[in-house]
Amino acid sequence: MSKPKQPGPVGRALGQFFLLDLLRDREARYVFLYVGATILFGTVIYHLLEGWDWIDALYFVVITTTIIGYGDFTPATQLTKFITVFFALNGVAILVMLFDQIRRVRTKAARAHGADAASNAASGQ
Questions:
Q1: Are 45 and 74 in contact (CB under 8 A)?
Q2: Rounded to two decimals, what is the model's pTM?
Q3: Which of 115, 96, 100, 106 has the alpha carbon at shortest distance from 17?
Q4: Among 23, 36, 65, 118, which has the highest number of CB atoms less than 10 A from its own CB?
């Protein structure tokens, strides 16, 4: 039985850029989906409660979650201010979890690629 065809260097780079390698890893998939669900949830909340359009709500959630905080959008209600505190405090934890999974998945892939290269060199391929 032959191995499945591996993507070329461009396909691999694009997959890594869009974090598709995280979706293929069982453990990382949950963290990746948690990050996506958090961003989606926040976007819907700010769209509904603040009346911002979808792009502005998404922009605000990402900027707040990554603790950049440009200040060009600010929540107007007490409820959305409270929700913003949640996103700002959880942003650090979410990023640490995501970056740790990226590191783990890519280190594992690099080791596997190195082992494949070593075995190919040993077998004369």
A1: no
A2: 0.72
A3: 106
A4: 65
